[in-house]
Amino acid sequence: MRGREVLIGVSGGIAAYKTAALVSRLVQAGAGVNVVMTRAARHLVGPKTFQALTGRPVATALFGRGAHPHIELAAAAELLCVAPATANLLAKAAWGLADDLLSTLLLSFSGPILIAPAMNTVMWQKAAVQRNVAQLRADGFVIIEPEEGYLSCGMRGPGRMAEPEKIFQEIASHLERLKSTA
Ligand SMILES: Cc1cc2nc3c(=O)[nH]c(=O)nc-3n(C[C@H](O)[C@H](O)[C@H](O)COP(=O)(O)O)c2cc1C
């Protein structure tokens, strides 16, 4: 993991607070980490948290820092992982919509993209969401399945984001695979 470059996308799910543990784990393992947050994600966790953990500014805007942030961030990374991925993010990715920095990066990044969905059970089981997940798999995205368990809305069921350690291991094994095919 030392010296590897990872891009983490955070969309607006309550599990965004767990992504701080994932980012910390990656940094402690020696990776360089850039974090991109959607507007909704920034309502749930402050960018300063990720800035402090990575030692790098957090990217939030397409028309902000840098001339072409969607190109520059994509070029710097070996792997992109979105955690948590909202129902909205899944839909945008499945349809190729690009109306903010994170969704544009999903199109401008050419390496492996791992997606860790997280949402309420009713949302997760909706036909539209399942259709989008199936489309993303068919398009080559790696879906890190959500788990069953306690959800912040008080329900129990499928939809809980995979644990940060599980996501870390998925990232590590994909980076390892990239190294052996380089
Ligand atoms: C407190 C709170 C928690 C939310 N948690 C989730 C969630 O876990 N999963 C999800 O798909 N949407 C969740 N939402 C709804 C999304 O934030 C909303 O659909 C938003 O438009 C997603 O935007 P984004 O995909 O650009 O981040 C939550 C909303 C609120 C207010």
Supply database-style keywords.
single chain, 182 residues, alpha/beta, Rossmann fold, two-stranded antiparallel sheet, 9 helices, 7 strands, binds flavin mononucleotide
Summed up, what is this model?
The chain is α/β, with parallel strands linked by helices and about 180 residues long. The protein is built from nine helices and seven strands; from the N terminus they run βαβαααβααβααβββα. The chain has one domain: Rossmann fold, CATH 3.40.50.1950.
Radius of gyration: 15 Å
Instruction: Give the averaged pLDDT, no decimals.
Output: 95
Using the coordinates shown, work out and report the CATH topology.
Rossmann fold
Shape: globular
Count of distinct strands: 7
Poorly predicted runs are none
**CATH homologous superfamily caption:** Flavin prenyltransferase-like
What small-molecule ligands were found? flavin mononucleotide
How is the biggest beta sheet arranged?
Answer: 5 strands, parallel
Strand order of the largest sheet: 2-1-3-4-5
Distance between the termini: 15 Å
Helix and strand content put the structural class at alpha/beta
**What is the second-level CATH architecture?**
3-Layer(aba) Sandwich
* Percent of sequence in beta strands: 15-25%
- Binned, the helix content reads 40-55%
CATH class descriptor = Alpha Beta
Query: If helices are DSSP runs of H or I spanning 4 or more residues, what is the number of helices?
Result: 9
Order of helices and strands: EHEHHHEHHEHHEEEH
Number of domains: 1
